[in-house]
User: Which sequence fits this backbone?
């Protein structure tokens, strides 16, 4: 299992959300998880529930 899949599962992300990139710097003791969604993904409006594209993502 690749780190992106592992962290997506650990965080409980559901599609279309996913961990896109993981970086770890030992010297800084820093773990960066970049969360994204595939281009063309659709999301339900939190007000009316209609599915559509996020603003600026088309």
Assistant:
């Amino acid at each position: 299992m690749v780190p992106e899949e592992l962290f997506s599962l650990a965080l409980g992300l559901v599609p279309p959300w996913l961990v896109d990139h993981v970086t770890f710097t030992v010297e800084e003791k820093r773990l960066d998880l970049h969360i994204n969604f595939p281009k063309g993904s659709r999301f339900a409006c939190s007000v009316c529930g209609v599915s559509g594209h996020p603003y600026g993502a088309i």
Notes: The chain has a mean pLDDT of 90.
